[in-house]
Amino acid sequence: MLTFSYAPFSLWLILPLAVSAFFVLLTHSSSPFKIGFAFGLGWFGAGISWVHVSIADFGGIPLAGSLTLMFLLCSYLALFPATFCWLLKRYMPVRNWLLAAPLLWFLIEWIRSWLFTGFPWLSLGYSQIDSPLAGWMPLIGETGVSALLIALSMSMALGVMRKNLTAPLIIAITTFVGGWVLSMQQWVSVSKQPISIAMVQGNIKQELRWAPEQQLPTMQKYQRMTDQHWHNHLIIWPEAAVPQLESTAESFLQNLDQKAAQADTGLITGIVNYNFNSRQAFNNLIVLGKRHIEDVEGHYSYLHANRYDKHHLLPFGEFVPFEDWLRKLGPIFDLPMSSFTRGNYLQANLIANGVSLAPAICFEIAFPRQIAANLTKDTDFIITVSNDAWFGGSHGPDQHLEIARARAKEFAVPVLRATNNGITAFIDHQGNIISRLPQFEAGVLSADISPTKGNTPYRLIGDGPLWLLTFAYVLFNLYRRFKPKTQT
């Protein structure tokens, strides 16, 4: 049921109702780990079923094998809610669950966000981007909204058990009305000088992206689609839009660099770079054309500094754990471009025609702490590029866009999302979609987007209050457990 709370369905009210029903079951369960594991299998099995498309259609794995891999992945992710349920029931009396549950959930989900490089997809708060609770995101972030949902759901569950819904109704009214009031708060100032930006969606089929005979036609297609849009202040191509290694595409890039400079613009494109000396590959974003507004010529040269190296690499898609023996097991472990080197966690913003952009490639947009760490006082936009062709017509790309909207809402910074085959979209600083291109169509999306200045509370302090509350709660419970008993 949780899947219907997320995009593209966005039935956000289902989530607190479903989770509260689950908590009612948990209170009566004698096997909390098992029921938590079953909950996790349903949550992730349906929610990230789109992963099966990439495994079955592009991984070269038979149906039985792909279903087995999906079961293993979902089983791993289901361990987190299972552990949550076991710890909650083992160490916390039910009367303390209203406070203990959201703090424990926050801690478990934090572990999920970094363990084995992290996979924080389907965090509960994303489902609320169109609900009144989204108003809390600039204050406590999506992680805080997830904790708030757990508290709300737990209060409903306890109210049903005690046959007294007064407290749950008060909590629900407070959280939803509070979110609605907060949504009217202007955390930042919006520039009165919008910037004209164009994003190109080439719609190159996944099976053709790395075919040698398709490299030149792909590059020519992107350049042809751009020809009518050089008047924009900034042009963006998606992840790995140039399907050649950077070292072998120098002449094409130099020509593009000159064209952009002559058109008085900057161009950002995704490209793969391979260092033949160190044998390291990088998933890059590079800037061509003008770097600063006052420039009169392009600034590109091979390995120039105005670039971004992807930090959060996708397991098996961009790096293979234990690759020496896993690659021998099947084509899924030997996909093209599946051996990248990790870039630094902190990197300089891209500068294109005087515009400062904090970059995120593909699923990096799901890591709010990384985004926050790379935002500066000069950042105008968050730019995220992706290739969701791996996931066909599934709900994966819609969830990906939903996550990008949450980042814009949290930090009050507009997000520019350029993709190969959808969903390319402009997102304003309040998380609203300004405009978008249809999936599976080649097109160019243009808009005048205003940057923002200022900070949201979440951008300044992140998850600090949640950590403070968690540590205080742990210390308080340790004190109560081990304090000397007074003798009467």
From TrEMBL:
The chain crosses the membrane at residues 6-26, 33-55, 67-88, 97-116, 136-158, 165-183, 460-479. InterPro entries: Apolipo_AcylTrfase, C-N_Hydrolase, C-N_Hydrolase_sf, LNT_N. It holds the Pfam family LNT_N. Pathway: Protein modification; lipoprotein biosynthesis (N-acyl transfer). It is found in: Cell membrane. PROSITE patterns: CN_HYDROLASE. Residues 200-451 form the CN hydrolase domain. Its main location: membrane. Its EC number is 2.3.1.269. Keywords: Acyltransferase, Cell membrane, Membrane, Transferase, Transmembrane, Transmembrane helix. It is a multi-pass membrane protein. Catalyzes the phospholipid dependent N-acylation of the N-terminal cysteine of apolipoprotein, the last step in lipoprotein maturation. Belongs to the CN hydrolase family. Apolipoprotein N-acyltransferase subfamily. This is Apolipoprotein N-acyltransferase. It comes from Aliiglaciecola litoralis. The gene is lnt.
